[in-house]
Design a protein that fits this description.
eight-stranded antiparallel β-sheet; PepSY-ass_TM; alpha+beta; membrane; 51% helix
Length: 356
C-alpha cells in the first residue's frame, strides 16, 4: 500500500498541470453553444433542414468558399441557428440560416476554437493529441488507485467538496472526499477521452469483447467531377432514411471522391450520427449509403463513447455533471500536488557521540 501511495502521489504531481488543463478546458466546452447564443443573435433562431431550404444554403456556402478550401459544414438545427464551415487550413466561419457569413476567422482565431484545440490537441497538433490521450489513460489509473488507497479509511468519508481549512490534513481530507464523489464520472470521462485518441486498440478490444467478426475492408467509391446539388443530396438522404436529419455536409475531399452527407437517425447517441449518404457530383445520384443503426456491435458501442465524453446525451443534467467532473479533475490535480509538495520532511536524528 505504501508503494501505491507513493506512485499515486508522484504520478499525480507530474501529470497534475496537464490533467488540470484538460479538465478545465473540457468543462468550459460543455457550454460552448450557450456562449455562442449569447454572442450571436442568429444562433438563437431555428434552422430549417428541409431539402428545398437547406440545399441552396449549402450550395451558396460551397460557392463562396470553394470545395478546395472547404472541409465540411456542421449544420445548425431547431435549437441552434448557425452553420459552421470548417476550412482545410484550420480556420472557420459561422453562417446564418440564409447563407450569410456572420463571422470568419483563421485557425484558433476565436476563443471557443482555441479552447477546442487546447483540449483536443494541447495546441500541438497530432503530438499533443497523443499526449492528451495518455493523460486520459493516466487519469483513469489515478482514480482507480486513489479508490484503493482510501478504501481502508472510507469510514471517515464525508460529502464535502470544500476543505475545512487550509491545513494540510484538511486538504488531504478534501482530496479524498472529492475523489470518492467524482470517481466514477472521472473514470468515464477520462476513459472515453483516451478511447477517442487511441481508437484502433480500443476498437480491437471491443470486437473481441462483443464477439464481433472481422469485416472485409470496404471498396473505394469512384465519383466523377461536377458540382454537388445539395438539394438533391438532401432529398436522397430523406428518401433513404426517413426521420433522420442532416448534421455534416462534406464536398469531395479529393479528385474522384464522392460528396458525403452525414445524418443522425432516431436512436443514435452520437450528436452527428453515423449514417451516411455518398453522392456522385457528376450525376447527383447516391453511390452508397450506410445505416448507423445497422453497424456491428463493436462499432455501435464505440460510437456511444464520444457523446458520453462530450455531453452529447442526457440533457442539462448531464451537462452539469460533465462540467463539475472537469472542475473536480482540475481541483484534484492542483490541490493534490500542493499537499504533496507541502509534505513535511523528516529530519534525520544525529547519532549521539560515543563516550570516550
Amino acid at each position: 500500500m505504501m508503494f501505491l501511495r507513493t506512485a499515486h502521489a508522484w504520478a499525480g504531481a507530474v501529470l497534475s498541470l496537464l490533467i488540470a488543463v484538460l479538465g478545465l478546458s473540457g468543462s468550459l466546452l460543455v457550454f460552448k453553444k450557450d456562449y455562442l447564443r449569447a454572442v450571436f443573435p442568429e444562433a438563437r433562431e431555428a434552422v430549417s433542414l428541409a431539402p428545398e431550404t437547406l440545399g441552396p444554403v449549402l450550395g451558396r456556402i460551397e460557392a463562396t468558399y470553394g470545395p478546395e478550401g472547404l472541409q465540411y459544414v456542421s449544420l445548425g438545427d431547431a435549437h441552434f441557428g448557425l452553420h459552421k464551415a470548417v476550412f482545410r487550413d484550420g480556420g472557420g466561419a459561422y453562417i446564418d440560416r440564409s447563407g450569410e457569413t456572420v463571422a470568419r476567422w483563421a485557425k484558433n482565431g476565436r476563443a471557443e476554437d482555441w479552447l477546442f484545440d487546447l483540449h483536443h490537441y494541447l495546441l500541438a497538433g497530432n503530438t499533443g493529441k497523443l499526449i492528451a490521450g495518455v493523460a486520459g489513460g493516466a487519469a483513469v489509473i489515478l482514480a482507480l488507485t486513489g479508490l484503493i488507497i482510501v478504501w481502508p479509511t472510507l469510514r471517515m468519508f464525508a460529502w464535502r467538496v470544500w476543505p475545512k481549512s487550509a491545513r494540510r490534513r484538511d486538504l488531504l481530507a478534501q482530496h479524498r472526499d472529492l475523489g470518492v464523489i467524482f470517481a466514477l464520472p472521472i473514470i468515464l470521462i477520462a476513459f472515453t477521452g483516451f478511447a477517442m485518441v487511441y481508437s484502433g486498440p480500443v476498437r480491437a478490444v471491443l470486437k473481441v469483447v462483443t464477439l464481433t467478426p472481422a469485416e472485409a475492408p470496404s471498396a473505394r467509391l469512384a465519383a466523377g467531377p461536377g458540382t454537388t446539388d445539395w438539394t438533391a443530396t438532401l432529398a436522397a438522404a430523406q428518401e433513404a432514411f426517413p426521420g433522420a436529419y442532416p448534421r455534416l455536409a462534406s464536398p469531395p475531399r479529393s479528385e474522384g471522391a464522392p460528396a458525403s452527407l452525414r445524418l443522425r437517425q432516431p436512436g443514435e447517441w452520437h450528436q452527428n450520427g453515423r449514417t451516411y449518404v455518398l453522392m456522385d457530383p457528376a450525376t447527383n445520384r447516391p453511390l452508397a449509403t450506410e445505416d448507423g443503426r445497422a453497424l456491428s456491435r463493436a462499432d455501435r458501442v464505440f460510437n456511444a463513447l464520444y457523446p458520453l465524453h462530450s455531453a452529447g446525451i442526457g440533457g442539462r443534467l448531464y451537462d452539469l455533471l460533465s462540467f463539475l467532473t472537469g472542475l473536480s479533475l482540475t481541483v484534484l490535480g492542483l490541490a493534490g500536488t500542493w499537499t504533496f509538495l507541502r509534505k513535511p520532511r523528516r529530519k534525520r536524528r544525529k547519532k549521539p557521540a560515543l563516550a570516550a
